[in-house]
Every structure is written in structure tokens, then in C-alpha cells.
Amino acid sequence: MAYINLLPWRDAARKERQKQYLTVLTATAMFSFLLVFLINMVYSARIDGQTQRNRFLENEIKVLDQRIAEIRNLNDTKKSLQQRMSLISQLQGSRNLGTQIMDEIASAVPAGVYLTQLEKKGTSLLLIGKSESNNRLSNMLREAEDSDLLSSPYLEFIEAGKDSVSLLSNFKMHLTVKGYEDVQSSNTPATGKPGNGGAK
């Protein structure tokens, strides 16, 4: 029987398989490297694009912050101007207040009632004087209640004069000025002696 040696053929086949394996392995490695490279390029491009968008947004935010600061300054200036205009309007509306109050008090004070002192603080008025009778003071209270400028008349006290010969009684009355805020009125008390209000 003839003897056939198969070792060289097997060695050749094994080397061919190794060569194919190395070829496939190399191709797979190259394909994997190319795939990773492409993915890296795609994500790098996305990251660069997002970075540019972030920078654009940051610049726009800075511009908006500047505009907001300008708007706030304009609002502060507007409020300041509105306050000044309101104060000017109030001062214009109340510049004749003192004269109006004196005219109104002169109209409300009947004959027989004499004022010796008049004090004004804010919207409050204090009247101190003398009266010939309680009825005349009652008439004065009614006139103050019907006034368009004066309100809330309050008679604090009325007492007979210390001189028994005198027929006049001392009184103290409080009034309030309508429609004017304290800021419109003088905060410094003013004292005057208008004298007799006179008969209507």
C-alpha cells in the first residue's frame, strides 16, 4: 500500500486560513477605525455648531441685558418725572388754598363770633375765639358742615369768660380741609387774628 504524506498540504491550508483571518481582521479593524472616525467627525461638527449657537446666544443675552438696563433707567426717569409732574400739579392746585380757606372761614363765621387765633397744620384747622352766645356757635358749625371746602367741625369746649362782667364765652373748634392731602398743605402752623367774621 502506498503512503501519502498530507503534512505539507495541511500546512499550506493552515497558512491560507491564517492569511484570510489576518485579512479579515485587518479589514474589520480598518472599517471600525473609519466608522469611529466618521462618528467622531459628526459629533465634533455638532459640538462646534452647538458651541457657536451658545456663543451667539450669550452675545444676544448681553445685548438684551444692556437693553433691560436702559429700560430700567428709562422707567426710573419716567417715575421721577411723573412724581415731579404730580407734585407740580398738586402745588398748582393748592397755591390758592390759604386764600380759599380764609374766605370760607369768613363766610362761615356769623356776627357775634370773634376769632382770636387760627392755626393750620396739614389738613387740620384750629379756631380759637369768643362768642356772644351758643346759638351763634351752632350756626357756625352748620355753616362749616355745609361748606364745600371745610368739613368735620368739632367744638372742643366752650366756657364763660373769666371776667364776670364780660358777656363773651371762650371756645375752641377744630375743622378739616376737604380734598387736599397733607403734602399739598403747609406743615408749618400759621397764626392769625382775623377778628370778627362779620354778618352774612
TrEMBL record:
The chain crosses the membrane at residues 21-43. It comes from the Bacteria. Keywords: Coiled coil, Membrane, Transmembrane, Transmembrane helix. The keyword Repressor does not apply. InterPro entries: Extracell_DNA_Util/SecSys_Comp (IPR052534), PilN (IPR007813). Residues 47-91 form a coiled coil. This is PilN domain-containing protein. It comes from Rheinheimera lutimaris.
